[in-house]
Structures are given as C-alpha cells and as structure tokens.
Design goal:
CATH topology: Non-ribosomal Peptide Synthetase Peptidyl Carrier Protein, Chain A
Largest sheet: none
CATH architecture: Orthogonal Bundle
Structural class: mainly alpha
Number of domains: 1
Helix content: 55-70%
Radius of gyration: 11 Å
Shape: globular
Number of strands: 0
Oligomer: single chain
Order of helices and strands: HHHH
Distance between the termini: 11 Å
Amino acid sequence: MTSDLAAKEIVATALGLSVGEVDGETSLGTTPSWDSLAHFRLVLALEERLGRRLDAVEIVGITDLPGVAALLT
C-alpha cells in the first residue's frame, strides 16, 4: 500500500470520513471534522502504524494529508 493511500485511510478513519472525502485539501484548518479529538485519534493511529511514539514536533506538525503521508514514508 502506498503511503498516500495509507495516509488517506488513516485520516478518513480518524476524522470519520470516507476515503473519497479525503484529498490534498484536507487539513486542520479547512476540514470541520478535524477537531482536537480527531487529531488525537490521528496521532494514535499513526503511532500504532509506525510502531513508535510521535514526538511533540511531529504531533503539532500534522496539519494536512501531505504531512501524514510524509510521516509514513
């Protein structure tokens, strides 16, 4: 699975969206369902996928789909 598709799936699940609703414009500032709880779910999903804890810089840097994909590469 490519990191872009994996990122879409992780973001969609965390935000309660379908994969088709997630695109390059999906971001913390533009997607209403991306609230603090969704961000927390996203961080947990990424940590599980990566098998490690994210540091504070990584957590606050997760603001859009490309940022999620970058962590998965």
